[in-house]
Amino acid sequence: MSPNREITIVGAGQSGLQLAIGLLAAGFQVRLVSDRTGAEIAAGRVTSSQCMFDTALGHERALGLDFWADAVPPIDGIAMTILNPPGTPLAGSKAIEWAARLDAPAQSVDQRVKMSAFMAEFVRRGGELVIHEASVEDLEIYTQQSDMVIVAAGKGAIAKLFARDAQRSYFDSPQRALALTYVNGMAPRPDHSAVGYNIIPGVGEYFTFPALTLTGPCDIMVFEGIPGGPWDCWADARTPEQHFETSQRLVSEFLPWEAERCRNVSLTDELGTLAGRFPPTVRHPVATLDSGRKVLGMADVVVLNDPLTGQGSNNASKCAAMYLGSIVKHGDRPFDQEFMQSTFENYWEYAQFVTAFTNSMLLPPPPHVLELFKAAETYSEIGHRFAAAAADDARDLFTWFTDPELAQGYLSGLVAMR
Questions:
Q1: pLDDT in tens, 177-193
Q2: I want to staple 400 with a disulfide (CB 3.0 to 4.6 A). Which of 166, 191, 335, 410 is the partner?
Q3: Strands 303-304 and 281-282, how do they pair?
Q4: Whole-angstrom Cα distance, residue 104 to residue 78?
């Protein structure tokens, strides 16, 4: 590979920064364009409820980016609680409850902490950092100056260059009203830490897990409300205090066991809240500028999933690792449209399973899934296998979890072994 090959990456999130640092290590010249400085990111609002599992963390470790191993509270497992649905005699009580340990701990580091640190590390390692809100016109300039331009910024005019892929996009509207709240003082779960999922039929989902924020260890409360339902209520929470009060009210009304854990919580900071909604969308990965030049999208720009299954930052890390491998392997050949499309398709070979799984979890669970979850109370193997696959590699779910016949065969085999 020529040492003079230059790549411009627009967007300084998980995928853009990880790829940029990986490309520096591989000998490329890299320009990274961000609309904010590291200090501005650190002083800004929370951006996500990221929870990264072992494979994604491994990509960071491989690049020497494991900066918080001794500070971040470990997430040791997955816990599942499904409530009895409205209209049933036991509505609102627990119908299913189990917990399973992960094979390796997960981690959640506030992206205000992580991205500002990664940005400083990128500069320290010799990368060119440009603080500028890139426009479509800027992309034209970057394509003339670079061997390839990659768009890793999932918002704004440049993200709209990438057209929705109707064949790969299952939904065309938001499926959840989303909100998250960073808090101090939450009581820990018994036994072990976990991503604790609570599914309320007809209402939505609530999950929570420990994290590391600007002020130290904390917990993140995440609400996923079905549009038009009682948890689609965040528009009226216009201040941090109102957002916090709404968070407290919802767990108190719907999840008293979670409210008990939250008896002494407080906001980590005034910018530790976020609310919004978006449609899960898959987009075509190659955009054509007015000049005819091409740019490649990555991660959330081209595969945007609902955060229900916690795969956003994991997908970003895995996409960055796969793009890095494709770019390095390509050698001195031009980064043309064929290369860009094939690079994305290599990522989609994995991401399609995460997308299908996440989309399925947004729908009412079918009988065979409820049967599996109920059986997990008796057969710990089910919970462990679901936790490992749902967290770290969704492809396994399609060999036993997503299909009724495969699920029945798997469950029958477990029963026979007892």
A1: 999 999 999 999 999 99
A2: 410
A3: antiparallel
A4: 12
Give alpha helix (H) positions in 94-194. Answer: 111-124, 136-145
CA dist 81 and 83 (Å) reads 7
Check residue 109 and report its DSSP letter. B
User: Which pair of structure tokens corresponds to residue 263?
Assistant: 């008896």
pLDDT value for 2? 52
Give 91's DSSP letter.
T
DSSP 186: P
Is the Cβ–Cβ distance between 303 and 322 less than 8 Å?
no
Nearest alpha carbon to residue 199 among 274, 92, 118: 92
Query: Is residue 411 a contact partner of residue 375, using CB atoms and an 8 Å limit?
Result: yes
Q: 239-280, pLDDT tens digit by residue? A: 999 999 999 999 999 999 999 999 999 999 999 999 999 999
Lookup result for tokens 């050949």: 333
Type of residue numbered 148: M
The bridge status of strand 195-200 relative to strand 75-83 is parallel
Q: What is the crossing angle of helices 380-392 and 367-375, to 10°?
A: 120
| Segments in 63-125 forming alpha helices (H) | 111-124
d(CA 351, CA 300): 11
Q: What are phi and psi of 244, to 5 degrees?
A: -65, -45
- With cut-offs at 50, 70 and 90, classify the pLDDT of residue 3: low
Helices marked H in 99-212: 111-124, 136-145
Residue with tokens 């948890």: 231
Quote the CA–CA distance of 305 and 285 in Å, as a whole number. 15
- Of 357, 276, 367, nearest to 309 by C-alpha is 357
Q: Tens of pLDDT along 363-379? A: 999 999 999 999 999 99
The pLDDT value given to residue 17 = 98
Contact at 8 Å (CB) between 129 and 8?
Answer: no
Residue with more model confidence, 418 or 133: 133
d(CA 131, CA 152): 15
Q: How far is CA 317 from CA 17, 57, 60, 417, in A?
A: 10, 8, 8, 38
CA 181 from centroid of its chain's CA atoms: 16
pLDDT tens, position by position, 11-35: 999 999 999 999 999 999 999 999 9
Distance between CA atoms of 176 and 170, rounded to whole angstroms?
Answer: 14
Query: What's the rounded Cα separation, in Å, for the pair 73 and 193?
Result: 9
